[in-house]
Amino acid sequence: MSTPSKPETRAISVDYLARVEGEGNLKVRVRDGEIEITEFGIFEPPRFYEAFLRGRAFSDAPDITARICGICPIAYQMSSVHAMESIFGVKMEGALRELRRLIYCGEWIESHVLHAFLLHLPDFLGYQSAIHMAADHREAVEKALRLKKIGNDIVNLVGGREIHPINVKVGGFYKVPSKRQLEEMVPNLEWALDAAAWAVELTAGLPFPEVEADYEYVSVCHPDEYPFNEGRLVSNKGIDVPACDWNKVFEEVHVARSNALQSKVRERGSYHVGPLARYSLNFEKLSPRVQKLAAAAGLGKTCFNPFKSIVVRCLETVHAVEEALRLIDVYREPARPDVPFTVKAGEGHGATEAPRGMLYHRYRLDDEGYILDAQIAPPTAQSQMSIEDDLRRVLEKYIKLPDDELQWRLEHAVRNYDPCISCATHFLKVEIDRG
Amino acid sequence: MAKPKLGVFKFASCDGCQLSLLDCEDELLTVAGAVQIAFFPEASREYGEGPYDLTLVEGSITTPHDLEAIKEIRAQSKFLVTIGACATAGGIQALRNWQDVSEYTRYVYAHPEYISTLDTSTPVSDHVTVDFELRGCPINKWQLVELINALLHNRKPVIPTYSVCVECKRRGTPCVMVAQGIPCLGPVTQAGCNGLCPAYNRGCFGCYGPMESPNVAALGEWWRSRGVDDRTLVNALRGFNAYAQPFREASDVYAQQA
Q1: B96, B126, B152 — which closes off a domain?
Q2: How far is CA A389 from CA A29, A214, A386, in A?
Q3: Which residues on chain A are in Cβ contact (under 8 Å) with B47?
């Protein structure tokens, strides 16, 4: 009598998912070819932002919520000020609106280049980190660092400093830059335009795993502009609502052993926010230059391969540099740095495009402007179910790879989203048990 | 001589302070050449084991797991530096220390039973010996470079503990309190930002925490005399460094009177 061979069981465990902001956790079990994700959660210790915002003044929201994420503080400042301004009936126009776009361009550049070159590219080229990569590709890393710095220079000049800028407030800014200060950045931005196009070309030549998915892409959409601060929430599967209807279309669910709330489309489930979603829903609003670069990079008007997000990040970097140059060109220093308004009670909503996707804020204020209720849906929490779906796809495709290679491929799949785990409350870890 | 080993660890925080290292665009590769970056998960998959010559710790202690982890990190570290307001004072999330955390958990989460958290957010120095604290929300990246440089040369880092006022004077910024009547925490806040907010026509809001021997009561009276109500005063002191002793104690006094 022969003994049936025991299914082989292998376990892969990773305590941190490196090269993402903050950390989370992935547990996978494989039994007889059946793949089961037993856990994908975010383990950043809870910081309770929504809870302690209650009782703070409306004017504290941009400074406090910036601290949710050190890598995209502008996004938090933008969503919060727009939400507050919708309560007070403030409309950002002219130079102040343009400055808000300009500072967002700076954040997109620094965040996209940081992710594409320092955090994501090493996965494609098989390096543990950008610092290891720099040993063989010093020139490319130095060029990317210079490009990233130009993004930070914009945030610095308009915002006061690159991490947790201090110059954004409800109603506008504390102080506006002069035309001349902005113009001093032009030569560097012109260099950046070429450098960003080089980045597109470089990343377009990478080997991409052939993984595609029928995502529901969601982004802010504006009738005339590639989205930053304003527009409706739109998807490729029929969503088209104003930001104030976020809770009608989406819901936040709390899964076991996770400190982040995940969002889903109420009727359907997972959705995907970020560069791929913006690109695929707003291609027509990109400039001829960016569209041409996209075509040369082999991309169509939409892109459903999550690994190609690195190319789209670089395309969006070109867009952000181009837009920054345009904004500086048309800038006329406004007579005052802010718009006057009267504080009143009400509920307000703000949805803007963080580098890693749409970021939604909702606040309810009392008549003195103190916060009664707050809700924040960070992009990583919104894409989290989609990330989990991708992990399943990658597992199915690459299950035969040896443990260490498979693990790396899975990490790579998570990093496709540029997950800002701190944003989503919020910490990630990987553990694979297979047989 | 072997390069000093660097480890970077994180607890509850926004990642901004460790990001400061990656934001040293012009210095990053030089720094990476001078030290061995053994453990820095935000930037590298590599997991170099301790002991570390220099350990940077970001974030505050907020979970039962953190309490164990920080002791292990301390045991593996020759020189342990906490970076940023979360690690040095408990951060903005220390606002929970005045509230009922179970209510917070119920407010934010549908399943409070899934959440494992302590009732308080506390600085690392409440739990282990810390060799140096680099303040700020976020830290100043030049102070971080100075710190690493000082360690490499076996000298004390030059990090001033005087107030933001000194930086405003040096920068030539007219005092926003005196000239414009804008409430400012600059007189009680440690320097490090180069007098940033007053240069942008706004009052300091305390990113670098209390200066050495601050007179918070005197400043509070000045604010009150200019019509600032106690609720605003309490909220101002309860910012990113709310749980740092001088700010905490003064805010408790004003909260009782509010």
Answers
A1: B152
A2: 15, 11, 5
A3: 15-16
B111 and B215 co-located in one domain:
no
Please, what are the domains in chain A? 53-425 (1.10.645.10)
Q: Which of A50, A70, A134 sits opposite B17 (nearest CB)?
A: A70
Q: Which residue range is the domain that position B122 belongs to?
A: 5-152
In a domain, B157, yes or no: no
Interchain contact B33–A (C-beta under 8 A) = no
Shortest CA gap A147–chain B (Å)? 9
* pTM of this structure: 0.94
- Provide the greatest CA pair distance for chain B: 61
Q: Do B46 and B128 lie in a common domain? A: yes
Q: Which two tokens stand for residue A305?
A: 């391969």
Comparing CB atoms, the residue among A21, A45, A164 nearest residue B137 is: A164
| Interface contacts A/B by beta carbons within 8 Å | 189
* Interatomic CA distance for residues B120 and B96, integer angstroms: 6
* A286-327 per-position pLDDT tens digit: 999 999 999 999 999 999 999 999 999 999 999 999 999 999
Complex ipTM more than 0.95, yes or no: yes
C-beta neighbour count of B27 within 10 angstroms: 18
Chain B residues touching residue A152 (CB < 8 angstroms): 23, 25
| Residue B223 belongs to some domain of the structure | yes
